[in-house]
Amino acid sequence: MLNVGIIGGTGYTGVELIRLLSMHPGAQIVTITSRTEDGVRVSEIFPSLRGHVDLTFVKPSIDLLSQCDLVFFATPHGVAMEQAQELVDRDVRVIDLAADFRMKDLTQWKKWYGIDHSAQQLLDEAVYGLPEINRKKIQDARVVGNPGCYATAIELGFAPLLSSGLVDSDSLIADAKSGVSGAGRKEELGIIYSEVGDNFKAYGLSGHRHHPEILEILRGLAGTDIGLRFTPHLLPINRGILATLYANLVETNSQMVRTSFETFFENEPFVDVLPEGQFPDTRSVRGSNFCKIGLQVSEDERSVLVVSVLDNLVKGASGQAIQNMNIMFGMDEKMGLNGLGLVP
Amino acid sequence: MLNVGIIGGTGYTGVELIRLLSMHPGAQIVTITSRTEDGVRVSEIFPSLRGHVDLTFVKPSIDLLSQCDLVFFATPHGVAMEQAQELVDRDVRVIDLAADFRMKDLTQWKKWYGIDHSAQQLLDEAVYGLPEINRKKIQDARVVGNPGCYATAIELGFAPLLSSGLVDSDSLIADAKSGVSGAGRKEELGIIYSEVGDNFKAYGLSGHRHHPEILEILRGLAGTDIGLRFTPHLLPINRGILATLYANLVETNSQMVRTSFETFFENEPFVDVLPEGQFPDTRSVRGSNFCKIGLQVSEDERSVLVVSVLDNLVKGASGQAIQNMNIMFGMDEKMGLNGLGLVP
Amino acid sequence: MLNVGIIGGTGYTGVELIRLLSMHPGAQIVTITSRTEDGVRVSEIFPSLRGHVDLTFVKPSIDLLSQCDLVFFATPHGVAMEQAQELVDRDVRVIDLAADFRMKDLTQWKKWYGIDHSAQQLLDEAVYGLPEINRKKIQDARVVGNPGCYATAIELGFAPLLSSGLVDSDSLIADAKSGVSGAGRKEELGIIYSEVGDNFKAYGLSGHRHHPEILEILRGLAGTDIGLRFTPHLLPINRGILATLYANLVETNSQMVRTSFETFFENEPFVDVLPEGQFPDTRSVRGSNFCKIGLQVSEDERSVLVVSVLDNLVKGASGQAIQNMNIMFGMDEKMGLNGLGLVP
Amino acid sequence: MLNVGIIGGTGYTGVELIRLLSMHPGAQIVTITSRTEDGVRVSEIFPSLRGHVDLTFVKPSIDLLSQCDLVFFATPHGVAMEQAQELVDRDVRVIDLAADFRMKDLTQWKKWYGIDHSAQQLLDEAVYGLPEINRKKIQDARVVGNPGCYATAIELGFAPLLSSGLVDSDSLIADAKSGVSGAGRKEELGIIYSEVGDNFKAYGLSGHRHHPEILEILRGLAGTDIGLRFTPHLLPINRGILATLYANLVETNSQMVRTSFETFFENEPFVDVLPEGQFPDTRSVRGSNFCKIGLQVSEDERSVLVVSVLDNLVKGASGQAIQNMNIMFGMDEKMGLNGLGLVP
User: Fold this and answer.
1) What span, in angstroms and rounded, lies between the C-alpha atoms of A112 and B78?
2) Which of A318, B289, C24, C286 is least enclosed, having the fewest CB within 10 Å?
3) Is residue D155 within 8 Å of residue D134, measured between CB atoms?
4) What secondary structure does DSSP assign to D171-199, as a single string?
5) What is the pLDDT of residue A291?
6) How many CB pairs lie under 8 A apart between chains A and C?
7) Distance between D303 CA and the closest CA of chain A, angstroms
8) CA D298 → CA A206, A211, A231, A247, D261, distances in Å?
9) Residue contact C278–A47, C-beta within 8 A
10) Strand C291-297 vs strand C271-273: parallel, antiparallel, or unpaired?
11) Which secondary structure element, helix H or strand E, spans residue A248, and what is its range?
């Protein structure tokens, strides 16, 4: 039985980790920390956990945390980079659900997150936790940077096309739409119900933090520079990301497009390529760890459309983190992640 | 042309006043204040007003405000009671959309709002701005306390029954449901989309500020003590209150019940009593100043059910304030308030 | 391994049975029928099941069905009463999720469902499948009538009060609110998004089919006649029922009220009585089999307020059906039902 | 006072026509037809109209209709083309809110609507009712084909770019999202709340009826062939379309892009081009006749992003129809259309 800790358990990725781990037969939460809720029972903040989860928030303590095999950081960015080294030194492996260990480019990091990175050495060894492209490296990683939710949806949607060289890597468009939980559990005027409900908008058009993260990964897949226009939108739904992806084909063989997806994801337990003519909706993955992908070559065979959906709190955050945990500790990659989408 | 001022125009009741007044042929906004947004164009905060409303927020100034015939306070409670006297002294009439001039009982006021009332004299002369019961007094009022949204829906729903003595005034239940805009435009964890969307709950069960306000009015209508259980709930909708009201009949003549409503509201321009068998939904009054009421005597003729709906920002706040303004200044009571419910 | 069949798998209770059974370690679906979708893969209608559920809809066949240990009817009312006898004769046990085996009173049945009951003998032996009051009878039942969703929420909320004689059984009010999935998966103008979204209403005020079902059960609990006013409302949410219940106390000992709940549900795996001052929201049970209950005695100790929530498709339908299955076949009652509420 | 008739008043465009016309000082509804609701008061179907609209549905009658100056067809496609000639012959002008008079290309029409066009002569003289490009022709038109909702949003968003030749007309992408009321008021499984609520999807990817309509108009603006990828999505909101538009620039002068919009829409009463850095949300036009447009040239100045929003029932249907009416009869184009967006 794996012993895990959660640092920062009062946000949505935190409670989702708890929900998923409570059904995981191979791991148990031994400590969950919160500075603000120290001493409060977790089920008091999240009554959905009553009767199943008998944990109490505690202040972070290196003694407790060092008894863990693995610690999840479900904290805002900037926390993990301060605390991860201490854990790694005690042979505790780390998965950060924030952005601290996602990007290798320190200049970009500082530009988008406004602070210097304080753990460059760990960052160098950290592995980007997208199993579909980094599974082998994840197995032995001491530190995993868990991908962003937009990033996961977009990278999985473009990966087969770029790695097979089927599309013009300079022509990419990601028109992406996210549910509100992606913005986190925090007091912010722009995400109160009366501002979001029965409403829809684009946002972050002057630049979004996931953009450079996505570029780094896509560049690696394509082996060349990437031109990507990325437009995030805010959906009046709780969970779910749907990314509508556009790219121009360099070859006009439409069958190769479909084949590239089927081959790339052939043995992937959590990526589902839908048959021709079918496209996924966000609810089909609500609460599940699946990324579902539909695709269509345009009639003139000059471009391809990909629709990629996932639950931003599961495959886009906590579920993917547990998938990474399973890989890191040699467990069945699907363990604890067999919940199906909640429909309706 | 009436000159009006708005103090505190950045909340939802503020922008709703602006929206409604922009279509009012007999009044114009001459000043709108905000301490935090001083110098900012109103249409920058509320882009829906672009091209129609050419106002800029300014710091409150007694010089500007004293040029108004009427000033609306669209501020949190506690502001109007500090500033109204100064205006009244300069012959400016006042409508407060917050709670400062609603309740006569100072002990209750302090209990629920946590501060001493600082304008007792003005409070004594202030009129509770529910036209359906106080129209005559409103005509000459210098200070009007505009009713709360829950209060308006519940008081109008019980008024005919209590004033005609048809129900046991000790048996009242108001099971009320409100859209989220009733909570205002503010940063608060409990009203962010991810906490409210696709969710429903009761709240304020240890006591709600509208309760004593309602009791005061109902007591006046009944001429006796009131026993009222009031349960507010939070709906995942933007606008709208629906109050489901229950009372035990003292007489078992069901026709008298319907007659009491039709008589009480006979000439009311903004209360619509639906025919037998029909009950209103919240959208039928979305954006309009109507209160719609459906009612049904139980089969055993021992109790009555009333369903009362209104738009919490219109008849429950800004629309009613303008209705009061129309009455105070001898204009057609319906002026500027003829917008129909936005369906769907 | 239990072999189960599902008759009528294209509705929401059908897909929810499939979702829950796919995670059940002790049961497997061997046949799922649909007259309209014969030959179609289940995952084509419900893409959320792709990769996990490899079933194809077939026409109902007594040969296939008679190989089952248990058959669920997820059909409209009137179907199970025609087909159950044939199954029972072949030693197949039956759980009907519709209304055919809920009420013993045939006159009421005909009044509300418009047809004569065609299986009176089976109805006589059928057990009402609310484990919290009928667990022992369910163990040996050949036919179980699975309770309605409103009925479950309201019965569990009133049960401790009525069985302990703490309340005036003539004073009951159930102000209940349901998500739209309770209306089923069907083409109906009143439940299209544009009629329901950002809207709220009461409905069924001339009488609701769940009313007589609830009365029968409450009468049994109270051992006396029941006076119940029941007002259903339609919430713009997918899943969830919240029932706000009111009753007048005959004793004014508020501690006895809380004790009655804690005692009644002491060993219940799926009823959670919240601590004083806490009330449940619908999302806390989204996708889970829990019924959560909050309660409060009024300040004057003359009445009690109960808030009861459940997921209408789980504890209000398919989850409760599986709970009944577990009981009928001597399995752990919680088996396959340990999913936690999906929050947010 | 203009006398107008409405054919087919039971859908959403019908009730929206009624709502808007009830506030129009220069027009009155003299007849409103419905075959299915003959004899029923309009306010019985739409209680929001009670007290303001005293109309009763009647069967279509040429006698009544020929007394009108103008008749709106708020019917499904295929109706207006059968009945318009008869009206035109009696000097009644016609605005069809369906598709019968939008496209000149009869082959495309038959392909997308499945029937032969039966009024080719009228179609030849019919004017596409987008005032921003056809105002002069609309003035004298006897028959106006009112544009589709997607079409209006997309055409207005691309018009300045194409007419000024700033973009590669072969590179257009319209990623468009619509509220559910765009699908009409009808019994259809795919639009019931439980299928749409808390969900999001792309649809119509094998081809959408608005595509050829849009192409025809854009071709006219560009004076050349158009390559447009159009992806509609279904939003869980009642009203509103947001189209995110992409195009590659042929010139890299970003200031020319903004100027092209400001020039093109300089005197347009209902198109609002937002300042640099601002982008519209759908609620800012909820219930109003505005189309609001935000735009941004990419950092590398190789492409442009346009966000265009409107209310699909107002500027996307009934509001635009009234705007056309105003133009056709020489009234102030803004008459009756000065309602502001309902926020929140």
Assistant:
1) 42
2) C24
3) no
4) -EEEEEEE-GGGG-SS--GGGBHHHHTT-
5) 98
6) 86
7) 9
8) 9, 14, 11, 17, 16
9) yes
10) parallel
11) strand A241-248
Q: Which fold has domain A2-125?
A: Rossmann fold (3.40.50)
Fold of D2-147+315-328: Rossmann fold (3.40.50)
Chain A closest-CA separation from residue C247 CA (Å): 26
Closest by Cβ to C49, choosing from A50, A340, A344: A340
Burial degree of C330 (CB within 10 A; 0-12, 13-18, 19+): exposed
Q: What is the pLDDT of residue D209?
A: 87
Subunits with at least 3 CB pairs below 8 A relative to chain A? B, C, D
Give the pLDDT of residue D207: 85
Strands in A201-202's sheet, in edge-to-edge order, are: A201-202, A228-234, A172-178, A241-248, A303-310, A291-297, A271-273
Beta-strand relationship, B271-273 and B241-248: unpaired
Superfamily of domain C2-146+315-328 in CATH is NAD(P)-binding Rossmann-like Domain (3.40.50.720)
pLDDT of D20-56, one tens digit each?
999 999 999 999 999 999 999 999 999 999 988 899 9
Q: Which residues of A touch D (CB under 8 A)?
A: 173, 175, 177, 194-195, 197-203, 205-206, 227, 229, 231, 233, 235-240, 242, 244, 246, 277, 279-283, 286, 294, 296, 298, 300, 303, 305, 307, 344
Q: Which of D239, D202, D228, D183 is nearest to A175 (CA)?
A: D202
Q: Give CA separation, D9 vs D17, D67, D329, in Å.
A: 8, 18, 22
- Say which CATH superfamily domain A150-312 falls into: Dihydrodipicolinate Reductase; domain 2 (3.30.360.10)
Query: Is the CB of D340 less than 8 angstroms away from the CB of B285?
Result: no
User: Please, what is the end-to-end C-alpha distance for chain C in angstroms?
Assistant: 34
Residues of D in contact with A305 (CB under 8 A): 205, 229, 231
Find the residue in B nearest to D293 (Cα). B47
Which band of pLDDT confidence, cut at 50, 70 and 90, is reported for residue B254?
confident
Q: Do A189 and B194 touch (CB under 8 A)?
A: no
CA D223, distance to chain mean position in Å, is: 23
Q: State the chains in contact with C (3 or more Cβ–Cβ pairs under 8 Å).
A: A, B, D
Could you read off the pLDDT of D116-132 as tens digits, one per residue? 999 999 999 999 999 99
ipTM score of the complex? Answer: 0.97
On whether the CB atoms of residues D5 and D64 are closer than 8 A, the answer is yes
> Cα(C230)–Cα(C157) distance, rounded to whole angstroms?
13
Q: Cα(C87)–Cα(C72) distance, rounded to whole angstroms?
A: 11
